[in-house]
Amino acid sequence: MVFLYKRVFGHDQISITDWLKARKPKKLPVGLSEAEASRILANLQGTPLLAAQLMYGAGLRLKETLRLRIKDVVFDRKEILVREGKGAKDRVTLLPNISVDGLY
After folding, report:
1. Nearest Cα to 55, choosing from 30, 82, 76?
2. Is 70 exceeded by the pLDDT of residue 50?
3. pLDDT of residue 23 exceeding 90
């Protein structure tokens, strides 16, 4: 745009700073309070409860939770191997104690 105004239209007083806009600050995500999480978990049962417990307790995203396989859960060390998470990276996270019985 600056090239267009300077070279084509002949406006020499245009600078790049006239075209830059202020960037909006990134907002941090807002998490659930412990009371809010407890109320949500109290209204779930079965598989949705287990998925919510894993997401909240292990910090998993929905897609990571749905992709879990039995070989990704190490009960001895209470770890979960998350394959191809955000950025297609693998990571290890903790297995919440409350989810162990539901996974057996």
Report:
1. 82
2. yes
3. no
Segment (H or E) for 2: helix 2-3
DSSP string, 5-62: IIIIS--TT--GGGT--PPPPPPPPPPPPHHHHHHHHHT--SHHHHHHHHHHHH---H
Tokens, residue 16: 């790049």
Smallest CA-to-CA distance from 73 within 62, 87, 58 is with 58
Q: Spell out the domains of the chain, with CATH numbers in brackets.
A: 32-104 (1.10.443.10)
Contact residues for 64 (Cβ-Cβ < 8 A; gap 6+): 82, 85
CB 94 within 8 Å of CB 78: yes
pLDDT at residue 15, rounded to an integer: 64
User: Which residue type, as a one-letter code, is found at position 65?
Assistant: T
